Inverse folding.
């Protein structure tokens, strides 16, 4: 059985790392002509995963300093946080480690984190060594995160990343539903027991 057909995803990370470009590629299969986001932009992407039609509700936030204080307003009810950094800019990785990840860990219960995805974006331009990045991030967030090297420009790993995320969210949703049904049965058994 399948209850949820839409999932809220929030994209965060330093300005100009390519958050909007990833969404633009996902939703319109296009690249370029994007202005720096003001506040937050919303896009819904429908996709089929394991024969199920689902919607990814993507909240694409602004990375500019002046918008940082409003970002936690979008954290409520989120199924997944997609943290983006730019593989050609060390400052964007440092900011991911020292600002964006701590922001997520401060807001959510550590045992009840939304699904975390990291996009190491602009892989088409890679001139820097990013060995060790994934391990460093896992050291902070645990092994259950997804880590993808992406390029919005050359369309590398965008669909695989969102499909993998969607399939994990569906799985989680189905497990939750099963737990609810099972606990419902226990209650029913208990009340029958009392009745007889
Ligand atoms: N080469 C390359 N350039 C990219 C890629 N993704 C985005 N860009 C470029 O990076 C710049 C910033 O992209 P945006 O998508 O606007 O970045 P953003 O993270 O949404 O920025 P804010 O809205 O300010 O937070 C633009 O010039 C994009 O064309 C990529 O995969 N490869
Ligand atoms: Mg943007």
């Amino acid at each position: 059985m399948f209850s949820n057909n839409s999932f809220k995803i929030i994209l965060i990370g330093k300005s100009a790392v390519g958050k909007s470009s990833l969404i633009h590629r996902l939703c319109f299969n296009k690249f370029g002509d994007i202005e720096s986001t003001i506040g937050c932009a919303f896009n819904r992407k429908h996709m089929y995963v394991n024969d199920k039609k689902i919607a990814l509700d993507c909240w694409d936030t602004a990375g500019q300093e002046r918008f940082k204080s409003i970002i936690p307003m979008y954290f409520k009810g989120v199924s997944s946080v997609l943290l983006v950094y730019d593989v050609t800019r060390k400052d964007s990785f440092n900011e991911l480690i020292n600002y964006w990840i701590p922001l997520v860990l401060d807001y959510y219960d550590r045992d009840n984190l939304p699904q975390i995805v990291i996009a190491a974006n602009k892989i088409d331009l890679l001139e820097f060594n990013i060995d060790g990045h994934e391990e460093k991030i896992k050291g902070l967030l645990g092994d259950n995160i997804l880590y993808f090297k992406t390029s919005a420009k050359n369309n590398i790993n965008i669909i695989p990343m969102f499909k993998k995320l969607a399939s994990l969210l569906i799985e989680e949703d189905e497990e939750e539903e099963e737990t609810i049904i099972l606990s419902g049965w226990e209650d029913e058994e208990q009340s029958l027991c009392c009745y007889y």
The domain at 5-195 is CATH 3.40.50.300 (Rossmann fold). Residues 191-196 have pLDDT under 50 and may be disordered. The CA atoms of residues 146 and 164 lie 9 Å apart. The helical segments are 19-28, 90-107, 133-141, 158-195.
